[in-house]
Amino acid sequence: MKRKFKFFIEDIFEAIDDIEEFIAGMDFPEFYRDNKTRSAVVWKVETIGEAAKNTPKEIKEKYKDIPWKDMAGIRDKIAHFYFGIDYEVVWEVIKKRLPEIKVRIKQILEDIEQKPERK
Questions:
Q1: Which of 31, 58, 85, 119 has an alpha carbon within 20 to 30 A of 24's alpha carbon?
Q2: Which among 30, 17, 11 is positioned nearest to 103, based on CA atoms?
Q3: How far, in Å, CA of 58 to CA of 2, rounded?
């Protein structure tokens, strides 16, 4: 049985929420020095990417203003094949892009609540 798209949207929202909690009160140098936080954030960013990849095409078309393709490709953007993870890129994404995306993802969840999914 295919997973309902609502769960992918919830995964994205919860991952962004978690990231915000993980980095609360931190600046980039603190984030960079904290290996546990960096690892947790990267894991959640990858979760966002996977959930975006698996969100059905119809939903992506309905909410075209959300950067689905960028979200799905985020792992490729933050990781360089031989050089590991670019934490400056991670920081920029989580501080500048995710808050905007979170607002739109929340709107999708509200839309879902107003109009339940059909089987």
A1: 85
A2: 17
A3: 15
Amino acid at 2: K
> Annotated catalytic residue: which of 3, 33, 80, 104?
80
Residues 23-75 pLDDT 10s: 999 999 999 999 999 999 999 999 999 999 999 999 999 999 999 999 988 87
- List the one residue out of 2, 99, 111, 102 whose CA is nearest residue 55: 2
> By C-alpha distance, which of 50, 37, 51 is closest to 94?
37
Is 3 known to be catalytic? no
Among residues 3, 33, 38, 75, the one annotated as catalytic is 75
List alpha helices for 1-97, DSSP H.
5-23, 28-33, 35-54, 57-62, 68-72, 74-78, 87-92
- Examine the residue annotation and report whether 75 is marked as an active-site residue of this protein: yes
Nearest to 37 by CA among 21, 51, 49, 48: 21
d(CA 8, CA 86): 26
Residue 14 has pLDDT above 80, yes or no: yes
